[in-house]
Specification:
The chain is mainly alpha-helical. The protein has one domain: dinb family like domain (Four Helix Bundle (Hemerythrin (Met), subunit A)), CATH 1.20.120. 64% of the residues lie in helices and 2% in strands. The chain is built from eight helices and two strands; from the N terminus they run ααααβαβααα. α2 packs parallel to α3 and α2 runs antiparallel to α6. It is globular and about 45 Å long. The chain starts with a helix and ends with a helix. The mean pLDDT is 94.
Length: 171
């Protein structure tokens, strides 16, 4: 993969996340498991970005959000910060090894982890997010709501539309 492929994955991720948030915020019936899943994958997004930018980790607990809308706004904030990294990353940066503050916890579960590059981390981030978006979509469907189509190929076929955060940004 090259730098443009990674950028495309991240642009798709934002578009798909915005669709899921719109579906969640418009769902007639809320599910107690959905905020936790959303918080988990957005926390991972923030954590990876902070690690890739060599910043200290600052991830608020789910309990610090008084409601779903405040959680959505925090999640949306990630996409305000991401372009500074996404739009400037180059091939050399994609191939550098990344050190994770949580590597010791992984070592306890899996043994010493092999080095991962920044590019591999971006791929993991997109795949991890898609996995958990799918869980949210399943819960929406089980509650009688229609989850959005968030497939990467759908985004391509629709000519890579920009994300629509209006449901999150509105008061």
């Amino acid at each position: 993969m090259n730098v443009n492929d990674y950028r495309g994955l991240l642009l798709h991720m934002e578009w798909a996340d915005a669709l899921v948030w719109r579906a969640v915020l418009c769902a007639p019936e809320q599910d107690d498991s959905i905020p936790g899943r959303l918080h988990h994958f957005h926390s991972t997004q923030w954590a990876y970005l902070q690690v890739l930018q060599r910043q200290p980790l600052k991830i608020p607990d789910l309990g610090s959000f008084p409601d779903l809308k405040s959680l959505a706004r925090w999640a949306r904030g990630f996409y305000g910060e991401l372009p500074a990294y996404r739009d400037c990353v180059d091939e050399a940066q994609l191939s550098r090894s990344v050190e994770f503050p949580w590597a010791a916890q992984l070592a306890e579960r899996m043994g010493t982890p092999a080095p991962a590059t920044a590019g591999e981390c971006l791929l993991q981030l997109a795949l991890h997010t898609a996995y958990h978006r799918g869980q949210v979509a399943t819960r929406l469907r089980e509650r009688g709501a229609q989850p959005p189509l968030t497939d990467f190929i759908a985004w391509i076929w629709m000519r890579r539309p920009a994300p629509d955060w209006a449901s999150v940004d509105a008061d």
